[in-house]
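Full entry
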Amino acid sequence: MKNLPSILPFIQELTKQVGDRLLADFEQARVAIAKDDGSLVTKSDRWADAYIKAALEKEFPEFGVLTEESTQILPDREWTWVVDPLDGTTNFARGIPIWGISLGLLHHGTPVFGYVAMPPLRQNIYGWSDEHGSAAFFNDQPINLPEASPDPDALGNYFFSACSRSLEKMGRSKFPFKLRMLGVASYNILTVAIGSTIGAVEATPKIWDIAAVWVILKAIGAVWVPLEASPNIFPLEMGKDYSQKNFPTLVVSHTELLPMAREITKPFTL
């Protein structure tokens, strides 16, 4: 595939179809059950998973598909879609309108295209990055990080986003930022891209949480730091089961913020 933007109209229409159905479900009674790992799943998750997987396989028959709810082994294909059909299931099940749909496209195991739709917020964040160029967009408007890093003396006026597991892992109760917990791994990280936060940390994201957002953050030049022994997440390993693999992650908007952010998240690497 030489023209990544050419797939955008199909992905936009697909996520709109799924998003409209999920919004309708969201207005009705929602019943969630616990999976083996303790996380929740609803009938809406499973419907969206099956619908997206079938649509992608029909449109891109030569591509593989890895999804959270059904196929978690990376296919041995040149191109593979990585799908989170409903990121933020707990929010969805409890009536909190922050949840989304995430689709990332891998080439030889490395993300080159990502699209995250947040139907309740009417937000779509997407981008691509390969040898032909890179770009990222928020509701069809180009995303560009501010040239200057925030003033270190004014960090109290900025947000840093974290998941609840991150706080436990870091053993922290106080931060030099105003803290927000969104409950949606992909969107938590993307708040850096859209300018809502200057940094974000996730303790236990899976590959379907980060495949799409990694390429978006890369396209705008944000700093992505894996908080584990291996410094490289990608390329992924063909034929590997990624159902239990976590990718603890730190993201900051500017390099100047990295030393302080690394100090905050140091317990991850001890």
In short: The longest helix spans residues 8-26. Residues 149 and 254 are 6 Å apart (CA to CA). The helical segments are 8-26, 43-59, 89-94, 164-170, 185-193, 207-220, 258-264. The radius of gyration is 18 Å.
